[in-house]
Design goal:
heterodimer, A: two-stranded antiparallel sheet, 2 strands, about 0% strand, B: 5 helices, NADH-quinone oxidoreductase subunit H (chain A), NADH dehydrogenase activity (chain A), NADH_UbQ_OxRdtase_su1/FPO (chain A)
């Protein structure tokens, strides 16, 4: 009896979801599916259907998205980070190479890649090499289902939201592998701290996201975005959209805080904690491996920003034509990035035992309270 | 077993996991490509002492592969329980609004309240048993490490 109900309800969700999709989809394929980037590329090049075409076009589209992300990380991680921290501490930072010191990006990229790779004595060799690759891959994989606006979305599976959380948390495996394989005591401590932190904040993060799903009624990312396109309040000419950050600000604050812990930024940068354990799990990584660790951290920040933008800030929604959606989406991601850098400059680090207590005794309880309150309010009011 | 009706509505080409797999390939190729590029341009000057493990400039003492009190063993077990719980919560959140309109608030909400309630009781139990508490070394142990 229960299964029948589930399937029935599921079908009706699909039906209504397809209706709302049409407003969001740029092309609108037959059957109400959102047109994803591989499909768009295939139809632009006049190629037919079929799994192989989709795969090849998927490779091309994935290359485009990944290149964009790498560029974003290069600008924000090498140049933006310094400039923002300098602005907070009243300094100038890089300004010698090119306009605003922007050419430092090229110089630093080449410098870091051309450093000698020093593998510490007694490193657990295959694991030591695999760990950075795992971290980068897990961060990049999350972007497969993010609707970035202007028709840029690689795939739109039904379980999109669950998929994002699943692949993003593979990074924990990479962290603990890196910490253990380095044969360094600081790395070991950092790896253990990283895994303790990630498991403590994963559940508040996911449960808070579940409270959004109660509103949206779907795990499909494009439907979550489409559900936020309605107008919440009209204040004269300005109409405030029903972004879940406005509908449920408590969940938004919880999610942003848990996300800070999940990407390991201040006040929760305990796994690295430069004043306590050198650089944590990445102490022994040099040359290209260090680049990969650094890259994965920043892609994770942007993935966190992308999830926040999709779940709470209406995804690519914004004033202007729909083609501008990508710009709005990137701006929202950058806003979250700016917030992490702000916190990095302004908030002191919590101690590891405080971190565990905040996670298990504070955030977890609050996130369940939020879930139940949301369920009650939605059940009564809608 | 009868075929699921939903299968027929989705054409094969729009199976989203093909594109996800494509990104999976790309996301492994990018780090491998960077490693390959770096191995072409970086120097290799093997030298004794360079590869010593970093311990703030001191000569490294002892091994890292030791028995270590990781403090969070119970917390990790808790995580497994709650992670499975979140997996079970997600289907409920998806159908919740439709379920409320079909069978009413009580029937849709109360079972989940009971389910979460059982787990919260478990959390309170673990909390009171000190699973989340940081275990400090006893006084004698601390004196030994200080000297």
């Amino acid at each position: 009896m229960n299964w029948g109900l589930l399937q029935q309800a599921n079908n009706s969700t699909n039906g209504s979801g397809n209706g709302t999709n049409a407003t969001n989809a740029s092309g609108g394929m037959g059957g109400g599916e959102v047109q994803t980037l591989p499909d768009t590329l295939a139809s632009l090049l006049g190629l037919g259907d079929g799994p192989l075409v989709t795969f090849v076009m998927g490779i091309v589209a994935a290359g485009l998205v990944a290149s964009f992300l790498l560029t974003l990380v290069a600008v924000s991680g090498i140049w933006g980070k310094r400039k923002i921290t300098a602005a907070f501490t009243d300094r100038i930072a890089v300004n010698r190479h090119g306009p605003f010191g922007l050419l430092i990006i090229v110089a630093d990229a080449v410098r870091l890649l051309s450093k000698e790779l020093i593998v510490p004595d007694g490193a657990d060799r295959p694991a030591y090499d695999i760990a950075p690759i795992i971290m980068v891959s897990s961060a990049l994989l999350g972007f497969a289902v993010i609707p970035m606006g202007s028709g840029i979305q690689l795939a739109d599976p039904e379980a999109g939201l669950v998929y994002v959380f699943a692949v993003a948390s593979i990074a924990s495996v990479g962290l603990v592998t890196a910490g253990y394989a380095s044969n360094n005591k600081f790395s070991f401590l950092g790896g253990l701290r990283a895994v303790a932190q990630n498991i403590a904040y994963e559940i508040p993060l996911v449960v808070t996201a579940a409270s959004v799903v109660i509103f949206a009624g779907s795990l499909r990312m494009s439907e979550i975005v489409a559900a936020q396109s309605a107008t919440l309040v009209s204040l004269g000419p300005v109409s405030i959209p029903a972004w879940y950050a406005f509908v449920n600000p408590f969940a938004f604050v919880l999610f942003v805080a848990a996300n800070l812990a999940e990407v390991g930024r201040n006040p929760f940068d305990v796994p690295e904690a430069p004043t306590e354990i050198v650089a944590g799990w990445q102490t022994e990584y040099s040359s290209v491996y260090f680049v990969l660790c650094y890259l994965s951290e920043f892609i994770h920040i942007f993935l966190g920003g992308a999830i926040i933008a999709t779940l709470f800030l209406g995804g690519p929604a914004g004033p202007g034509p729909e083609a501008l959606g990508f710009v709005w989406f990137v701006l929202k991601m950058l806003a979250v990035y700016l917030f992490t850098q702000w916190a990095r400059s302004a908030v002191p680090r919590v101690r590891i035992d405080q971190l565990i207590e905040i996670g298990w005794k504070g955030m977890l309880v609050l996130s369940f309270a939020n879930l139940l309150l949301t369920a009650v309010i939605v059940g009564v009011a809608f | 077993m009868p075929a699921l009706p939903i299968r027929n509505t989705i054409p094969l080409m729009s199976n989203p996991w093909i594109a996800v797999g494509a990104l999976g390939v790309v996301s492994v190729l990018i780090p491998l490509g960077m490693i390959a590029a770096s191995s072409l341009i970086r120097p290799r000057v093997p030298e004794q002492g360079k590869t010593a493990v970093y311990e703030s400039g001191e000569v490294p003492t002892g091994n890292t592969r030791i028995r270590f009190n990781i403090q969070y063993y119970m917390v990790a077990l808790l995580f497994v329980i709650f992670d499975i719980e979140t997996v079970l919560i997600f289907p409920w959140t998806v159908i919740y609004r439709d379920a409320v309109s079909q069978v009413g608030l009580t029937k849709a909400l109360v079972p989940m309240l009971i389910f979460i309630g059982v787990l919260v009781v478990g959390l309170v139990w673990a909390w009171r048993n000190g699973a989340v508490r940081w275990v400090k070394p006893t006084a004698t142990e601390r004196r030994q490490t200080d000297t």
